[in-house]
């Protein structure tokens, strides 16, 4: 990875009417090949900057996958109008979560672009939060 892009990831989570938003700005890399968008970037913990999570986001025009490897690991699958069960790992253990995706939008090329998604998260088929995220990619 040669970190040719500035990547801004903004995530919002609404639980019981309370909305919380976080933003991560980092350097990363993007490839667009045969309709497949791949975004790779590191995230560092605010509490422990030495703690790194490597994130890979892929989108093939239908399925958006978010893979995180590090202290917390996850493999999330988002597909508009479809519920997927995904494994989410934390330092306290693993759990299965359900993700029903309302919308995915993507406009990315070698110059940069944007991806956004909105989805409902559930545990044991009981809705626990509504989530939105937005990725902005700008070539350095």
Describe the structure.
Helix content is 0%, strand content 78%. It has a single domain, classed as Lipocalin. By secondary structure, the chain is mainly beta. A 10-stranded antiparallel barrel has the order 1-2-3-4-5-6-7-8-9-10. The radius of gyration is 15 Å and the shape is globular.
Features:
Lipocalin, 10 strands, mainly beta, 10-stranded antiparallel β-barrel, 140 residues
Q: What topology emerges from the helices and strands here?
A:
Elements: E1 5-15, E2 18-33, E3 36-44, E4 52-59, E5 63-69, E6 73-79, E7 83-90, E8 93-109, E9 112-123, E10 126-139
Antiparallel strand pairs: 1-2, 1-10, 2-3, 3-4, 4-5, 5-6, 6-7, 7-8, 8-9, 9-10
CATH architecture: Beta Barrel
Strand order of the largest sheet: 1-2-3-4-5-6-7-8-9-10
Percent of residues in helices: under 10%
Structural class: mainly beta
How is this structure best summarized?
This protein is mainly β and 140 residues long.
